[in-house]
Amino acid sequence: MKKWFMGLLALPWVWTFAETKPNVLFISIDDLNDYISPLDNHPGIKTPNFERLAGRSVTFANAHCASPACHSSRVAVMTGVHPVRSGIYRNMFGAHGPRWRHESKVLEKAVVLSQHFRDHGYWSAGGGKIFHTLQWTPGDSQNDPDAWDEYRGDPLDPISADWPRPESTKIDQNQGFVGKRPLGNHYFGAAVIEQEEETYGDHLVVDWAIERMKEKRDKPLFLAVGLFRPHIPFEVSQKWFDLYPMEKVQLPKFLDNDLEDARPHGRMSWHKWVTDNKQWKHLMRGYLASISYVDHQVGRLLDGLDSSGLKGNTIIVLWTDHGFHIGEKENWEKFALWDQTTRVPLFIHAPGMSADGRKSRQPVTLTDLYPTLCDLAGLPTPVQCSGVSLVPQLRNPDKRKKSLSLTSFQFWGDSAPAHAVSDDRHRCIRYPDGFVELYDLKSDPYEFTNLAADDKYFRIKNRLLTGMPKEVAEMAKIPKISPWNRQRGHRSGQAFTHANKPFVFSFEVKPAKSNSVGVIASCGGIVNGYSIYVKEGQLRFAIRRNNRLHEIGAPVPEEDFVVLVMLEASGGMSLEINGRLQSSGDAGGLIGVVPNEGSAIGRDDLTPVGRYSPPFAYQGEVRRIAR
Predict the structure, then answer these.
(1) DSSP letter string, 587-622
(2) Active site residue: 42, 64, 70, 71, which one?
(3) Which residue among 5, 226, 415, 488 is the one 20 to 30 A from 14 at the CA level?
(4) Known catalytic residue: 428?
(5) Annotated catalytic residue 132
(6) What is the pTM (predicted TM-score) of this model?
(7) Which residue of the set 42, 132, 186, 550 is catalytic?
(8) pLDDT in tens, 311-361
């Protein structure tokens, strides 16, 4: 006890926030690289709000993602667990919920960052892309709805409905081009969205976040805001393209034959399509326009914070999930381990403590964010966390950080992951076949010259190699059985026509045996929906509204029976068996939206509405009775 108390005395920032816990504004941006003005300042870039944020925070100019892919990076940030422990090294699609808990045994019971704050007295809200999802994959999300008090829209489909497409995307994407464009439906492209930007995308998420900051509540606020641009497609309003006239757009620094002393990344065909079709400057313009668009949204968030009355007691964290290539090393997007791929913008402000306006070149991994926020808010850091607190560097940006940054990724065709580490000057990459790359980022910031074979750098190389992990987890695989697998084929897809309406459903049930269990009927999942199921001798009627579960139940008959369930306009729930009312309750209202998941009779193979784990088929016969 004495040791614990003395430790608190050594942490003055804890006492600073002791009486009133600080709020947290946690901003995540997708696919934003170091082109912004506070970092590499690409020629012509216009990011005044990132400059504004840099002036009121510490800029971590040598921060790196834990893995250069959306899913693996974001799970690492939100759980604090590095991929070398979890085995999640790259994207895995086809999820509808926190399937990462089943992809990695290590993460099965991991506490999400927002949940940790919620467990310690915070009101946690999120909106936009925090866990992995895409504009063009509705319902494919790895978000954990149970980690939030509120999530904007559907937490398992948080962004797909927000983004209209330009008129130019309605034609064949390969018309007029040489070869086949990467991806489909113009997603690898740049175009102007004709609709007013106030009606779509990140603007809507920021509108929602500003309203949350205005609200008065008796708990401190943890507010996570996920912005999707500049992720492809590079589609924003005309005014952002107008900032970058084509004749003034400059391409990134590029060296012909740059891959001669480096390991190829396997995505050179993307660059070939770009150069064959003379699209490089056009795509660069779209990326720059998208950066300025998201810069504007950051400015709106800062304005909202400043006008809310929360500014003086709010921690600000802005991070991006990984870097991004616009043709550097013949690569596009991410999925590599160079500095361009892994270096991320990271800004942190802690009221009354951070050395705002300064930069730190100390190496940072994004898994350091979880323990840092715990320290700043005076919360215990869960044992699951891999990173270290950045509080010493917030107070003194020049203070040496002992640990290296660590980024891990498993390339397609490899049987083990590759790793990259950075100190405050050098970067070293080791691939599973033993190939090594070493760069001096001070004299060679674009990583044109691999120094691994240069004897003058032998000691530096060995020191960095020694800092790489000795034992790592094998790459996680998509689990064949998980309630979070998105398996469309197991549901009928019947439309749910009772959004914002009361309903009555009735089913004739014939058990196969006296103790039959399973789902009699289901629609929706863990966010919105209903189900009728039998478990542990109880016939249950479950309603989900905005992720909140409401259940009533009664003993299940041993013989054939008819069950009738009702949700009234007031939110009242009732359960009848063989014409007699057995149980009633209150769901608090109607199911307000059409669930993403379909409906099914006699089974639930997707995400659960009630307290059961799919697949959960009923052991008997079920027939719906028309009313």
Answers:
(1) -SS---S--SS-EEES---SS-SSSS-S--B-SEEE
(2) 70
(3) 226
(4) no
(5) yes
(6) 0.80
(7) 132
(8) 999 999 999 999 999 999 999 999 999 999 999 999 999 999 999 999 999
